[in-house]
Amino acid sequence: MFKQIFLLIKPGIILGNLISVSCGFFLASKGSIDKKLFFYTILGSALIIASGCVLNNYIDQDIDRKMVRTHKRMLAKRSIYENYVIIYGCILGILSICILYIFTNILSLSFALIGYIIYVILYSIYFKRCSVYGTILGGVAGAIPPLIGYCAVINKVNIEAIILFMIFFVWQIPHFYAIAIFRITDYISASIPVLPVKKGISNTKNNILIYVLIFTITDLLLSIMGYTGYIYFIISIIMGIYWIYLNLLGYKHCISYWSKKMFNFSIIIIIVLSLIMSIDYQL
């Protein structure tokens, strides 16, 4: 039971988002790390992401029952009271707001709340179910965590912060489209209007290529604008070119194998680049 309750917060999603929060924090810090601020930024971010995931589980329970990947979740199996889940999610959210308000600043808290509202209300309740553009809106929500970390340090939005947001936003589109292709049977069963379902796999592959190209260019802006050094620039080029190469393989390889490989590499590239941009000041 405890394990299932723990899984309601979707720990994998929390970990991925905390990597991006840390990336933004370290990029803004430039080596001068406020450990106490970092701890509370991570804690507050983890709690609000956990709250969003718990409430998303509540909202998505009817969808989860129709998907092979999710049909064994507690709410999908009706093995926990819905009211408990709502209270659980709200408590996590309130704790997060208090921590971010007391220990960071209003700007970081504002970004956290904006991402929360987009994900829980706009995306989960409506766009995910009703629009092929749900992925785009989800990408906006997913690109906000690095801004939470960044603004916790410098308490302002500048060109560097905007580029950081663009990098994480553009990255998420091919990442999620690859998932949608790999799990297309589930999305069809649950009647979720993702791009492969509505427009076809061929159209989706073309869109993935466009976004990967945009990501590769956008990613270089940090170095071009002088925010990171040549090590980051070189690694960005190499990994970007390889991601483009993988994308092109999709036009002649097995779709299931290719989409899973694209998904896996999308995780690798964002982790590696997040790490490099976090420590680039030392290179």
Automatic annotation (TrEMBL):
InterPro entries linked: Protohaem_IX_farnesylTrfase, UbiA_prenyltransferase, UbiA_prenylTrfase_CS, UbiA_sf
Record membrane topology: Multi-pass membrane protein
Gene Ontology molecular function terms on file: protoheme IX farnesyltransferase activity
BP-aspect Gene Ontology terms: heme O biosynthetic process
Subcellular location field: Cell membrane
Tagged with keyword Membrane: yes
Regions crossing the membrane: 12-31, 37-59, 80-103, 109-126, 133-155, 161-182, 208-225, 231-250, 262-279
E.C. designation(s): 2.5.1.141
One term under GO cellular component: plasma membrane
Keywords of the record: Cell membrane, Heme biosynthesis, Membrane, Transferase, Transmembrane, Transmembrane helix
Top-level taxon of the source organism: Bacteria
Broadest EC class assigned to this enzyme: transferase
Pfam families in UniProt: UbiA (PF01040)
Claim: Ribosomal protein is one of the keywords in the record: no
Pathway participation: Porphyrin-containing compound metabolism; heme O biosynthesis; heme O from protoheme: step 1/1
Catalysed reactions, as listed in the record: heme b + (2E,6E)-farnesyl diphosphate + H2O = Fe(II)-heme o + diphosphate
Family to which the UniProt record says this protein belongs: Belongs to the UbiA prenyltransferase family. Protoheme IX farnesyltransferase subfamily.
Miscellaneous notes: Carbon 2 of the heme B porphyrin ring is defined according to the Fischer nomenclature.
Its biological purpose: Converts heme B (protoheme IX) to heme O by substitution of the vinyl group on carbon 2 of heme B porphyrin ring with a hydroxyethyl farnesyl side group.
Protein name per Swiss-Prot or TrEMBL: Protoheme IX farnesyltransferase
Source organism of the structure: Candidatus Johnevansia muelleri
Lineage, top ranks: Bacteria, Pseudomonadati, Pseudomonadota, Gammaproteobacteria, Candidatus Johnevansiales
